[in-house]
Amino acid sequence: MAPPLLTLQDIHLSFGVTALLTGAELMVAPGDRLCLVGRNGSGKSSLMKIAAGLLEADGGERFIHPGATVRYLPQEPDLNGFETVLAYVEDGLAPGDDPWRARMVLGALGMSGEENPASLSGGEARRAALARTLAPEPDILFLDEPTNHLDLPAIEWLEDELSRTRSALVLISHDRRFLESLSRATVWLDRGIARRLDKSFAHFEDWRDEVLAAEELEQHKLARQIAREEDWMRYGVTARRKRNVRRVGELKALKDRYRSHSGPQGLASLEASDAEQSGKLIVEAKNISKRYGERLVVRDFSARILRGERIGLVGPNGAGKTTLLNMLVGNLEPDTGSVRLGAGLEIAQLDQKRAQLEPRWTLAEALTGGGGDHVEINGQTRHIAAWMKDFLFRPEQARTPVHVLSGGERARVMLARALALPGNVMVLDEPTNDLDLETLDLLQDLIFDYAGTVLLVSHDRDFLDRTVNRTIAYEGDGNWQSYAGGYSDMIAQRGQGVRARSEQETPARTAATPAKAANSAASPPSSRAKLSFKDKHALETLPGEIDALTQTIARLEAELADPALFSRNPGRFQAASKELEAASQARETKEERWLELEMLREEIEAGS
Fold first, then answer.
1. CA–CA separation, 263 and 211 (whole Å)
2. Where does the pLDDT of residue 479 fall: very low under 50, low under 70, confident under 90, or very high at 90 and above?
3. Which residues pair with 28 in a beta bridge?
4. Given pLDDT bands bounded at 50, 70 and 90, which one contains residue 606?
5. Which of the chain's ends, N or C, has fewer CB atoms near its CB within 10 Å?
6. Residue 274's CB: how many other CB atoms inside 10 A?
7. Closest among 19, 9, 2, 20 to 51, alpha carbons compared
């Protein structure tokens, strides 16, 4: 076994009177693929900074192999002093590093390198920092939330790039699928110490539950032992004084051990404030379009959204997901077409950019909307201290200014504000940014149990699969298409995931509307000698997808044929009806596409 590249032993770190790390350890060997997990505030980023040599621990030892190179991805990069993004990335290269990789990585992340650092958005600055970190190919890569502000094509590129790197990886991320794909070992930072599981993140949650269950059993045994000793102290036969003194000391030690056990760290408690039930129809969009300058962002999109649906919008950065979302909920007028909103809608919205937070506000002011000591949730008045506790804030943080909160803390504040608004339609634009995995679990449960309708934008594939029952995907050139199910279901129906805009908006496609594209598919193959690889793949896979949808439709029709279903379970009846409608639409779309391709194939073969 190769010697470790880096070792941390007995690391201690405190902020003020709060002990964050109390004996944490970490070892990184060549080729390791570690994910560092734990709730927000557990010290993951601090431990990573200590490992990267950017933060001094209060106590403990750090050893790094002589000559080993490390790179660290900061959450808030500083690009001051550089004329271009390329100059910033190249500045991170060491002698002997390949300068070509700087441009290659920037291009893969959707940047040219000629951008002015002073004019970058927060997401663009993060992508520039990621390029600077990846370009050198060091011995150890420390990546703190590398998928934040990346779209789906960039996340999948990053997965592929990291799977092939020779560097050892230490990852912090809220993206489950990203961690499951890349990790081979999991380090759980909990109550100041680090526990290691030599398995991927896919095994973490079962292991964590076993550890906590074992702790609970141990505490139960300890409590029983204390009870027995106290009983002996009160009622036992008096023995030699020395023996009594010894047992008194042992009892005190048992009680100290029992009291010192802090138990697992708390979880956020999420509860949405409900409004009156809306009508059955939430949104009806008919042929809506939106153009910004020369670019058509949304082209002739139509959809009906019914009460209780969970809709996910996916696409690359810049495709127009937020634009389409805002048109659907009435925040933005379409250039053409119409949007009709249902009756009795109360919309609670979480803003992607956290723009609803005033930096000058204190935490208490942010949670109450500007003043007061109470919030009203579902008709019940709650004190701000209790509401703060539900979202893992301490009472002494009530006067903390918003601008000094961490990204994860600001995300929890926005969630608290959105959930406090009475609503029957929840609109979430990138809700997963900066949330820890435990809070993500609770948000998923909240969405699942929410009585109203949910529309969300996300790049988190696992989160989409767990929360939505319909996906609206960007198809290129302003076209959007609905698919039944979550992200994985969309891939199964579509034959591919979300692609970058540069791959979808080629000159040939930009010039053609969907109607023209369909006509060209059925026209004589004067300029097309053979089917593309994508078309061949679609011809091979579409029949199986159509068969699967046919089976789904048959199953749903059989379920709905039960005359007692509506009276027994009206919620399931409505859900099955929606699933049947979506599956029927998906099958019709696939059948039309297969017919077009089959006609094209026959014409090409006849002309060859």
1. 11
2. very high
3. 6
4. low
5. N
6. 17
7. 9
* φ, ψ of residue 504 in degrees (nearest 5): -90, -30
Structure tokens at 441: 């679990």
Superfamily of domain covering 6-205: P-loop containing nucleotide triphosphate hydrolases (3.40.50.300)
How far is 311 from 458, CA to CA, in rounded Å?
Answer: 11
| Whole-number Cα distances in Å, 348 to 234, 383, 412, 429, 501 | 60, 21, 15, 11, 30
CATH of 268-503, one of 3.40.50.10230, 2.40.128.630, 3.40.50.150, 3.40.50.300: 3.40.50.300
Query: What confidence category does residue 379 fall into, taking pLDDT thresholds of 50, 70 and 90?
Result: low
- Burial category of 448 from C-beta neighbours within 10 Å (exposed 0-12, middle 13-18, buried 19 and up): exposed
Read off the DSSP letter of residue 473. Answer: E
Query: Which tens digits make up the pLDDT trace of 540-577?
Result: 788 888 888 888 888 888 888 887 877 788 788 888 88
Distances (CA, A) of 416 to 268, 396, 455: 10, 18, 18
DSSP-derived letter for residue 381 is E
Which bin fits 300, alpha (ψ -120 to 50), beta or left (φ > 0)? left
Number of helices (H), then strands (E), in the chain:
21, 20
pLDDT, mean of residues 305-329: 91
- Which pTM does this prediction carry? 0.67
Each residue's pLDDT tens digit, 489-504? 999 888 877 776 656 6
Handedness of CA 142, 148, 154, 157 (dihedral sign): positive
Kindly indicate the confidence band of residue 136, based on its pLDDT and cuts at 50, 70 and 90.
very high
Residue 525's alpha-carbon distances to 29, 341, 443, 507, 603, in angstroms, are 57, 45, 51, 19, 7
> Which CATH code fits 512-608?
1.10.287.380
pLDDT at 525: 36
Q: What angle do CA 118, 120, 125 make, to 5 degrees?
A: 110
| Contact criterion met (CB below 8 Å) for 482 and 470 | yes
Q: What residues pair up with 34 in beta bridges, in sequence order?
A: 170, 185
